[in-house]
Write a structure and sequence with these properties.
By secondary structure, the chain is an alpha/beta fold. The chain has one domain: Aldolase class I (TIM Barrel, Alpha-Beta Barrel), CATH 3.20.20.70. It is built from 12 helices and 8 strands. It has an 8-stranded parallel beta barrel, surrounded by 6 helices. β4, α5 and β5 form a beta-alpha-beta unit. The relative contact order is 0.12. The mean pLDDT is 97. The structure holds erythose-4-phosphate. Erythose-4-phosphate binds next to α7.
Length: 225
Amino acid sequence: MKIFLDTANIDEIRVAAKTGILDGVTTNPSLIAKEGKAFEDVIAEICSLVDGPISAEVVSTETAGMISEARHLAGLHDNIVVKVPLTREGIGAVSVVSQEGIRTNVTLCFSPLQALVAAKAGATMVSPFTGRLDDIGHDGMEICSEIVQIYENYGYTTEVLVASIRSPKHVLEAALMGADIATIPPKVFDTMFNHPLTDKGLAAFLADWEKAGDAVTGAVPAGSD
Ligand code: E4P
């Protein structure tokens, strides 16, 4: 499963990228607004830090506006994937720009049938928002899993990008169902490296190593030659 970071914060991206396991980044207008910097500058900086798909979202709501924004954004950097909302107008735009080779991430997907139309329009990725579905009493992961099943049934190449992840359990469930990508907030990303038994085990290994001293390091005691 590919791992994307769900943030527009440069420091968070820089820290996560150092692990070498980051495959891409997703942003949205709210995440960009939080940074208080020019949209295109933020996207350019992210592209310079991560060599993988970087989602940059259109803000037009009409098909024609989305098409022209998509063409502009895609021209900024090879890594850019244009994020388009899953509206009727958005799907119209995706149908046009996908024919031009522009990669798209169809976002704000909340149902398997929405995901079906995104695939038919030629979307590169579809983003079901699992946490927001859970928030209103639905089972977000069940919906993601139905999307994976539908794409498998018909051989659609659109990648399922599980979004609106709130916990490590969401990441685990995405991996178990065979989702192509999970976009993970930095706080959840950080939890994936940790286990108390790893810390305990490592502390014991190092203590034993220290206790054994010269016998294992091969150090020659001073004055013995
Ligand atoms: C995905 O691309 C979105 O940016 C994101 O996952 C939305 O998550 P939220 O529901 O936590 O805002």
